[in-house]
Write a structure and sequence with these properties.
Layout (H helix, E strand, L loop, with lengths): L15 H10 L2 H35 L2 H4 L2 H30 L13 H37 L4 H4 L2 H25 L1 E8 L6 E8 L10 H64 L9 H44 L3 H22 L1 H8 L1 H11 L2 H14 L5 H11 L33
Antiparallel strand pairs: 1-2
Helix pairs in contact: 2-4, 2-10, 2-12, 4-5, 4-7, 5-7, 5-8, 5-9, 7-8, 8-9, 9-10, 9-11, 11-12, 12-13
Protein name: G-protein coupled receptors family 1 profile domain-containing protein
Subcellular location: Membrane
InterPro entries: 7TM_GPCR_serpentine_rcpt_Srw, GPCR_Dmsr-1, GPCR_Rhodpsn, GPCR_Rhodpsn_7TM
Length: about 450
């Protein structure tokens, strides 16, 4: 054993009384970090188990022929894949560092196995990439939805399936390029920690980054390292947090505004039709009235459009609630001295947990807010009981039409039906619906 190695920063033994006094003597944030750290392993593993199964379900449902031809559903499919890969990469390290707990030290960053720490070095970059891809897919879905409801005449021609997949490809490439500096600066370091007994030490490994204070290299090497650290921080902070959060917040406001405008336009149109219908009755006009079935179909379309936008807004809000505070914390890391030691390190486990919850929640949103998704899910997995509940639930919300009208609507929608809505009332072309999650972001209907 190399006795010249430094002691691990979190060199603490099994003494619970010592750990408790340390936590109590520090501020409440440190106490929260220690307390939640004990629960992070089992809680996060349960969320990952749920998220992996539900994202696999999302992939199966969204690849069905009835849904696969929609640009929006293709984006939702990419979102589910990104969330699934993120969790699959995260789970092995979670099991080793938090469940198995190979070290008696309080911090989960140490391990006596160099192989596991090497894996964790690559896994950290992988999680960053695919989680960031999921965020940008959410942004793309929000942009597509805004184009659809804000520009109904040209939206379907702009927000096409090909452009959607091209946008996802560009997002993936950018995220991979931005993470390269992070991969280069992280390395496996070692230190001395507790062994089999108090009198004996052993080597532990952990992921570390270069420190300018300890550098013995030339001035040029120090300058290069500093530039790499600064570029790595601000590029990740901007591309992965600040910019997407700003875009999501802006698009959320725009979507709410457009939704309110669309609601006002429909109310005005309804009032105009009612007045016109009344004048027609008074004048005994022979002009044929709009069939009741057509009015029901229009109300169905309007209902679906509102549900699609509401679903998207739900996903956007989930992403904002999770990602916006993280973006603020990341900025504070660089602007406030010792912010990492005093604040950020105590919230690390909680931040990871909320991110995992956000990646696992899309299935719940889809099944709750999308009738088309529920019907397809029940059909794929032969869940007749849920299918019956779906039929009863939809009859309470949507106008009822005859079997003939429903058959006609199915013919018009063809294979372009979206997860939430099937047909755009302004054009015969299929249009994108929802976001990501997106996973979060998650558009499901048009």
């Amino acid at each position: 054993m190399n006795q010249s190695l430094p002691l691990c920063m979190d060199f603490q033994l099994w003494n619970d009384s010592v750990n408790t006094s340390v936590a109590i003597n520090q501020d409440w944030l440190a106490w929260f970090g220690v307390s939640f750290g004990k629960l992070h392993g089992p809680l996060s593993l349960a969320v990952c188990a749920f998220g992996i199964s539900t994202n696999l379900t999302n992939i199966v449902v969204l690849t069905r022929p009835a849904l696969a031809n929609s640009a929006t559903n293709q984006l939702l499919l990419c979102l589910a894949v990104a969330d699934l890969i993120t969790m699959l990469i995260y789970v092995p390290g979670l099991c080793h560092f938090y469940i198995a707990q190979p070290t008696p030290m309080k911090s989960p960053i140490y391990s006596p196995s160099k192989s596991w720490v090497t894996y964790q070095t690559g896994a950290a970059s992988g999680v960053i990439v695919f989680h960031s891809v999921a965020i940008w897919i959410t942004v793309i879905l929000a942009v597509f939805r805004y184009i659809h409801i804000g520009f109904p005449s040209v939206g379907p021609r702009i927000a096409t399936k090909r452009r959607a997949m091209t946008s996802v490809f560009i997002a993936i490439v950018i995220c991979f390029v931005i993470v390269i500096p992070n991969t280069l600066i992280n390395y496996v370091d070692s230190c001395l920690g507790p062994g089999d007994n108090i009198q004996r030490l052993r080597v532990y490994y952990f992921v570390n980054v270069p420190s300018l204070d300890e550098s013995t290299e030339s001035c040029w090497k120090q300058f290069h390292t500093q530039c790499m650290l600064v570029f790595n921080f601000w590029s990740q902070a901007t591309v992965y947090k600040i910019l997407p959060c700003f875009l999501l917040a802006t698009l959320t406001v725009l979507l709410i505004y457009e939704l309110r405008l669309a609601t006002r336009r429909r109310k005005k149109l309804h009032c105009l039709r009612e007045r016109t219908h009344g004048q027609t009755l008074l004048s005994d006009c022979q002009r044929p009235q709009m069939p009741q079935s057509k009015r029901n179909d229009e109300r169905n379309q309007q209902y679906n459009e509102n549900r699609t936008t509401s679903l998207l807004l739900t996903i956007l809000i989930f992403f904002l609630v999770v990602e916006m505070p993280q973006g603020v914390l990341v900025i504070c890391l660089h602007l406030i001295p010792d912010f990492y030691e005093r604040v950020y390190r105590h919230l690390g486990d909680f931040i990871d947990f909320t991110t995992l919850v956000n990646e696992a929640i899309n299935f719940v949103i889809y099944t709750t807010m999308s009738q088309q998704f529920r019907l397809t899910f029940c059909k794929v997995f032969y869940i007749k009981r849920i299918k019956c509940w779906t039929a009863g639930n939809s009859s309470r919300h949507a106008p009822v039409s005859s079997a003939v009208n429903r058959a006609k609507a199915g013919e018009n929608a063809k294979s372009e039906c979206l997860v939430i809505g099937a047909h755009d009332p302004y054009t015969s072309s299929a249009v994108p619906c929802r976001l990501t999650e997106t996973s979060v972001a998650a558009n499901m209907v048009n």
